[in-house]
């Protein structure tokens, strides 16, 4: 941290600021120029910048180091790879997680899992506890949904990711899933994040609807500081003044996070766009910009989905997207599941 004193700060004011910083346990290095005094402060992790700015004679306080530690690139220069058996998230391969927004029926889970597996996805997604804006909307099927998703994932040799909304759901979801998903609305549920810091499974942490990248990385820090190093970040669009799409998909978050952090980052263009006719474009862009994977909503019958139908792709659209990603990924030095597991024609 650097404390810049006002041009006309008195010696007494400078001494008082130094004394206060030392009292707070800091090391202070003073340098006085012709017009201003600047104080270099070391060990400022817990000091409230605004409190120092309020002291008499202080012009400005600047933070030099990031407020998060374990999530930062400087703490760990090499990329973190989250490994679940043969699925490696954050390595060379672009990992695609796909499936319905919510688990609805046995048939739907099986059909969606079969479709995404055939196209090359490695992880089945599906919600059993749904954070809906309205309490009257479909809230998910709870444990029954998890059971159907697990059966579908196992039947098609897929890993499973599902959302955890509350601390009380952790043990149950842990029984069925390979990855815990923390949704956008819960990015700052610090009690939940702390508890997931003790989980022995990877956590996919979505960016909050109005969260800055720094706030997002601080949320990751909650999980990391609890001892769980397996955090995957997920950009899913943020709320801006733009209303043409459900959210504004922040494509630049991918390279920014890559620079600031060693954690893998994947992209969710489904919630970013909010409509299925724009998901493929954003997905292609996300891979091109360096995302380590994608989280995509695919439904065997999206027009009858109980949640997020408008943004859920038809299996045929997902097939096409995966074929396009097989061209884009190698162009930027990444790999992706090489061939569809089986070729077949879909009605749409
Ligand atoms: C979801 O993945 O279905 C979901 C609810 O996502 P988000 O938390 O990004 O809104
Ligand atoms: Mn959804």
How many domains? The number is 2
End-to-end Cα distance, whole Å, is 58 Å
What amount of the residues lies in strands?
Answer: 15-25%
Helical element count? 11
Mean pLDDT across all residues, rounded?
95
Catalogue the unreliable spans.
none
The side-by-side strand order for the widest beta sheet comes to 7-8-9-10-11-12-13-14
Report Rg. Answer: 23 Å
Structural class: alpha/beta
DSSP summary, beta strand count: 15
The CATH topology of the largest domain comes to: TIM Barrel
The rough form would be described as: elongated
Q: Could you estimate the helical fraction of the residues in percent? A: 25-40%
Could you name the CATH class of the largest domain? Alpha Beta
> What about the largest sheet?
8 strands, parallel, barrel
Walk me through what this model shows.
With 348 residues, the chain is an alpha/beta fold. The chain folds into two domains: 2-62, Alpha-Beta Plaits, CATH 3.30.70.1140; 82-331, Aldolase class I (TIM Barrel). It contains eleven helices and 15 strands. Strands 7-8-9-10-11-12-13-14 form an eight-stranded parallel barrel, surrounded by six helices. A four-stranded antiparallel sheet has the order 2-3-1-4. β10 (179-182), α6 (190-196) and β11 form a beta-alpha-beta unit. α3 (106-119) packs parallel to α11 and α6 (190-196) crosses α7. The longest helix has 17 residues, at 315-331. The protein is elongated and about 75 Å long. The structure holds phosphoenolpyruvate (PEP) and manganese (II) ion. The site of manganese (II) ion has 4 residues, from loops.
């Amino acid at each position: 941290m650097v404390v810049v004193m006002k041009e006309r700060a008195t010696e007494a004011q400078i001494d008082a600021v130094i004394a206060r910083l030392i009292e707070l346990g800091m090391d202070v290095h003073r340098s006085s120029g012709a017009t201003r005094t600047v104080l270099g402060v070391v060990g400022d992790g817990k000091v409230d910048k605004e409190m120092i700015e309020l002291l008499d004679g202080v012009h400005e306080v600047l933070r030099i180091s990031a407020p998060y530690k374990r999530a930062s690139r400087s703490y760990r220069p090499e990329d973190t790879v989250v490994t679940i058996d043969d699925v490696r998230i954050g390595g060379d391969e672009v990992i695609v997680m796909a499936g319905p927004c919510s688990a609805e029926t046995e048939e739907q889970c099986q059909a969606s899992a079969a479709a995404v597996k055939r196209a090359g996805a490695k992880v089945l997604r599906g919600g059993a506890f749904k954070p809906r804006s309205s309490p009257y909307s479909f809230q998910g099927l709870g444990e029954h949904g998890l059971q159907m998703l697990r059966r579908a994932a196992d039947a098609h040799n897929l890993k499973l990711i599902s959302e955890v909304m509350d601390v009380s759901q952790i043990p149950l979801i842990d029984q069925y899933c390979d990855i815990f998903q923390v949704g956008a609305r819960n990015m700052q549920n610090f009690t939940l994040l702390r508890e997931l810091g003790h989980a022995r499974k990877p956590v996919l942490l979505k960016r909050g609807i109005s969260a800055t990248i720094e706030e997002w990385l601080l949320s990751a820090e909650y999980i990391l500081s609890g001892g769980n190093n397996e955090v995957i970040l997920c950009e899913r669009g943020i709320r801006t003044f733009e209303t043409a799409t459900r959210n504004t998909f922040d494509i630049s978050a991918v390279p920014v996070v890559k620079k600031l952090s060693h954690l893998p980052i994947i992209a969710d263009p489904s919630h970013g766009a909010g409509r299925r006719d724009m998901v493929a474009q954003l997905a292609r862009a996300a891979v091109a910009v360096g995302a380590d994977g994608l989280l995509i909503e695919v439904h065997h019958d999206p027009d009858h989905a109980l949640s997020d139908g408008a943004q859920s792709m038809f299996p045929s659209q997902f097939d096409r997207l995966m074929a396009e990603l097989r061209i884009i990924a190698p162009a930027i030095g990444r790999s992706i599941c090489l061939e569809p597991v089986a070729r077949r024609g879909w009605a749409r």
